[in-house]
Automatic annotation (TrEMBL):
Keyword Secreted: no
Keyword Flavoprotein found: yes
Pfam families for the chain: FAD_binding_3
PANTHER family: P-HYDROXYBENZOATE HYDROXYLASE, TRK SYSTEM POTASSIUM UPTAKE PROTEIN
Name of the protein: p-hydroxybenzoate 3-monooxygenase
Lineage summary: Bacteria, Bacillati, Actinomycetota, Actinomycetes, Propionibacteriales
Organism: Actinopolymorpha pittospori
Domain of life: Bacteria
Amino acid sequence: MGQITRNRPASENRPTILIVGAGPAGLVLGNLLRAADIDCLILERQSRAHVEHRARAGYLAANTVRILTDNGLAAGLLRNGQQHDTCMFRTDHGSFELRYGSRGRGEVHTVYPQQDLVRDLIAEYLDRSGDIRFETRVRDLNDVDTKQPWVTCESADGEVHQWSCEYVAGCDGQHGISRGAVPADAAQRYRRDHGVSWLALLAQAPQSMAAVAYAVHANGFAGHMARSPSITRYYLQCPRGHDPASWSHERIWEELHLRMRGELHGRLREGQILERGVVDMSSYVMDPIQYGRLFLVGDAASLISPSAAKGANLAVMEADVLGKGLVAHLKGDDEQQLRGYSAACLPRVWRAQEFSHWMINLLHGPMGDDDEAVFLRGLQHARLESLRTSRSYQDFFAENYVGI
Ligand code: APR
């Protein structure tokens, strides 16, 4: 084990805020703090190249675009992002389009690949003289319920460092260590396995339609979402524990054409499959999302299924609420907002969870021909019909799909 270097209090360059993780949550928070001239340090276990090329989400809700714009972080997405305001549903009973941009509050999504957003946020953070250490894995969080939390981290060269600080922001995602630093009896943990899995695909192919497309089919769900003019995200519902490598290129496109009813609506524009993986639909909510001087943000705080594209948007919303709370406390001596961080975020987290659950039931009918399955598919069809025909349903959909 390398030399332990302990960084002593502020006089010796101790960061006020230590941020674990450089995903959307950690980077938005870091930028807000730097804008207020608060010194912070981001520790990220992956390399800069890795986080700047990791393709993940990309559907930014109106509120996310507002937060990024208000904080001078939206230049890239305003320049290169594509606005999306339409969903298309394809079922055995026909196909319909829902222009959600003309329903609800009339808000739309901006499609901007997450890796491009992360690249912009890192560049802006460095421009704001932010301190970030890549290839530095945080191994443990300590004394987060005291006035002097500290962490141990290991850099790529095996050096072990200890950093102390005033506050820790756990922005290290669902597989990070921050969640585990909250004692079991200090928070309620809500979990749900939705019992559905998606084969998640990234194709080197332009979008086949100017809309998010959801297909409900006896073989399972299929989804089509643009990522950029030349990259499209596809999803295929598959059995739990399925090996993504077992799907040949031909079989993937054949199944996508079939479920998307390509014979009726025109064949999809094919291309090389760049990435594939299986996502099991599960949800996780922690309450509260703060413990002592540790604040959880983004996927570290709650996990949401990708059925309604909420994950990255919740991460940015929470980073904004926490950033404002820390600035008000450290610059304005008002602790109110910071104390209320969890209470401010959780109602919106639960609303997003509720709508994502509603989307899972909308898009996935149970397989099989037993009475229960047949009845539930009947309900699914009725829900889709209401969405096709009922203005209030469409307003509900729009408000929750692009709002919250
Ligand atoms: N030490 C340092 N960094 C860590 C550690 C650790 N022990 N554990 C994880 N990390 C880093 C990861 O490498 C990752 O870059 O934390 C970062 C967490 O980033 P995300 O997983 O993107 O989480 P978050 O910022 O909360 O954004 C969540 O964005 O990825 C989308 O759809 C996804 O909803 C999700 C949203």
